[in-house]
Design goal:
about 5% strand, disordered C terminus, disordered N terminus, two-stranded antiparallel sheet, 2 strands
């Protein structure tokens, strides 16, 4: 009985797929929001008032993930989607980054809330944990799902042409602008925020997450946890001061990671991981 090696192709996503990804992510999300912006009365009667838990709002939030999975599926089929999502199993990163993930976000949020003067109103301090668990569970499956597209798909493609710092900066601008319609709609979480601080904070967080993402060798899981910590319902409402603190944190992280962030050598550029060689028995 002879052994025959069967190779699975990488079926890697081409750099030209970035434009279709952005087009789908924006068209789906902005198309949904446009209905509620330009026909609010009809949309409210037909679909109910928009809120952070409205099915259409959730669909809009999922747009980057939908775009990524659609393009990966068209390029590599179900096998490619499975390999793409296998990056949800990557969890190794330096202890420094885990410390930032677990401690940095509450520190920034509470520091911003102290400046704002409402740190004592943080749900972590005022609500029983049992009452917060449903909100935490919902937030785990809301915003973090974006990262299947933003960091899972778009960032590796951008890093083929740009150093990580610039790739993170460009993606941060795209990411922030993609949220823009939510700022003009009542009922959304962003409706009470200022866009310019959010824009600055989003770009800063994108640069921070780029360094983390490359250290974790392209982990979608850790990108999702990073996103969850940004929106964790345990933290106080520190807008807009937490956004300014993210900018300061990004400047510090860029300084201590400048070799990696301005050098493409350590950048993750693979979207669909190469499958391991499969050995089949052949007679």
């Amino acid at each position: 009985m002879a052994q025959r090696a069967v190779h699975w192709g990488t079926a890697e996503i081409g750099s030209g797929q970035l434009i279709p990804f952005i087009a789908i992510a924006f068209s789906l999300a902005w198309g949904i929001f446009a209905i509620f912006i330009f026909a609010p009365g009809w949309a409210g009667e037909a679909f109910g008032q928009l809120s952070g838990s409205h099915p259409f709002f959730i669909l809009a939030v999922y747009a980057p993930a939908i775009a990524a999975l659609l393009l990966v599926g068209l390029r590599a089929g179900l096998s490619g989607i499975r390999r793409y999502l296998s990056r949800l199993l990557l969890w190794r990163a330096s202890a420094w980054w885990y410390a930032f993930l677990l401690l940095g976000f509450p520190a920034i949020s509470f520091a911003g809330a102290l400046i704002k003067g409402n740190a004592a109103s943080a749900p972590l301090l005022t609500e029983p944990i049992g009452a917060l668990l449903p909100a935490m569970g919902f937030m785990l499956i809301l915003g973090p799902m974006e990262e299947i597209g933003w960091r899972g798909f778009a960032l590796p493609v951008l890093q083929r042409r740009l150093a990580p710092f610039w790739a993170g900066l460009v993606l941060g601008v795209i990411w922030a602008v993609w949220h823009l319609p939510a700022f003009v709609l009542s009922g959304t979480p962003q409706a009470a925020w200022g866009f310019l601080p959010f824009f600055a904070g989003s770009v800063a967080c994108s640069v921070i997450l780029t360094a983390f993402f490359n250290n974790a060798r392209g982990s979608i899981l850790l990108a999702m946890l990073f996103h969850f910590q940004m929106n964790n319902p345990l933290w106080p409402d520190a807008q807009p001061f937490d956004m300014y603190l993210y900018v300061a944190a990004a400047a510090f992280i860029v300084w201590i990671n400048k070799r990696a962030l301005f050098n493409r050598a350590s950048a993750v550029t693979e979207v669909i991981p190469s499958a391991p060689e499969r050995v089949q028995a052949a007679s």
